[in-house]
Amino acid sequence: MLPVVSIVGRPNVGKSTIFNRLIGSRKAIVDDQYGVTRDRHYGESFWNGREFNVIDTGGYLPGATDVVKKGIREQVHIAIRESDLILFVVDTEGGITSLDSSVAKLLREQETPVLLVANKADNEERELNATEFYTLGFDELYPISAISGRGTGDLLDRMVELL
Ligand code: GDP
Ligand code: MG
Fold it and tell me: In this protein, which residues make up the domain named EngA-type G (predicted)?
């Protein structure tokens, strides 16, 4: 079985954009067996000769923050159970939110390795701003731009080291 990398984080931080960049032209499989956590996408990726599966999480019901929060918590719990590595995505454009902090808390309380990915670091200024995310309590922070690909090589190098 290939190692599994799950992508988690609040809505709109760019999880699906990162997922699409990781799987490239390969096809995603949609898994709808989970209740509010339907819409999980599975795809294969490889880097430096290492193959792995990637899971994009999402599909939270729109609406009140507590409903979104419940969906995210559920996704994070599944990710913790089934992953060898978790990419916790935050957004350098929007900064830290209370949802980020609650996801951070869940992820810090468990053993699966986590890389904090500060997405939308499209330029040097955004990349510098990304240091604020160290306050979420993770050792390894990777500022990237999923749209341009900036920083994604360093992230992938580290990912396959950990798999
Ligand atoms: P998700 O809800 O976390 O899956 O986020 P999406 O991948 O759907 O992206 C949310 C929005 O952020 C979309 O409009 C994306 O085009 C945008 N986005 C994603 N990555 C980047 C990035 O690296 N830079 C910028 N500026 N926008 C991005
Ligand atoms: Mg998405």
Answer: 3-163
